[in-house]
Amino acid sequence: MYQLFFDGACEPVNPGGVGAYGFAVYEDDREIHGEGGVVCVGGWQCTNNVAEYTALIKAMEWALSVGAAEVEVYGDSQLVVRQMLGVYQVKAPHLVPLYEKAVELTRRFRKFSIGWVPRERNARADYYSKKAYCDFLKTHPEVRQLYAGRLATERQVALLKRLGVEDAECLPRREASRLIERLFSRRG
């Protein structure tokens, strides 16, 4: 039985940022696989929900590719989890094909369950989505330039790096400000 944890993000702005997915696979409380990638860049249809659904789909596709028959799936997106459970309807037209693909994949498992977890329990999947986003920004300066006004300033990046924060250049400006405040209040 595999436990699949999935996460998605659209940074530095949602909608319209860089949509990235991540998932982590556990067996017997040990991480055995992790992966992330970029789903979309820009446009109103590039959202965190698109990234979340893509993460769920990619995780299930991976599990099927290694012959898994039973999976427990966890995510911190209440929307995706509740839609998959049938509690919420899928109203956004651009999410319908992703939802239908996810449902189709669930039918290929002998046993499938999905549940919500708080963000803290989803840290590895979050790590893979954030890493994919940041790696993409670092290798696509033209995209980074598009979002320059929303990303951490050079001064914020320099300060965060001195404080030991990796990949500070990928943080949205507001998140960088909050992180700086939090780090200095701890030192207080």
Please render the helix and strand layout as text.
Blueprint: E1 2-11, E2 18-27, E3 30-41, H1 48-65, E4 70-75, H2 78-85, H3 96-106, E5 111-116, H4 123-139, H5 141-146, H6 154-162, H7 173-187
Helix pairs in contact: 1-3, 6-7
What would your notes on this structure say?
The chain starts with a strand and ends with a helix. A hairpin with a 2-residue loop joins strand 2 and strand 3 (30-41). It is built from 7 helices and 5 strands. The chain is of the alpha/beta class and 188 residues long. The protein is 45% helix and 23% strand. The chain has a 5-stranded mixed sheet with strand order 3-2-1-4-5.
Strand percentage lies at 15-25%
| Order of helical and strand elements | EEEHEHHEHHHH
Q: How far apart lie the N and C ends?
A: 46 Å
As an assembly, this protein is single chain
- Helix content percent band: 40-55%
Backbone structural class: alpha/beta
Spans of 5+ residues with little confidence (pLDDT < 50)? Answer: none
Q: Taking all residues together, what is the mean pLDDT?
A: 96
Main beta sheet: strand number and arrangement? 5 strands, mixed
Kindly state the number of beta strands. Answer: 5
- Shape assignment: globular
* CA radius of gyration: 17 Å
Structure annotation, total helices: 7
Which structural traits does this protein have?
188 residues, alpha/beta, 5-stranded mixed beta sheet, 7 helices, globular
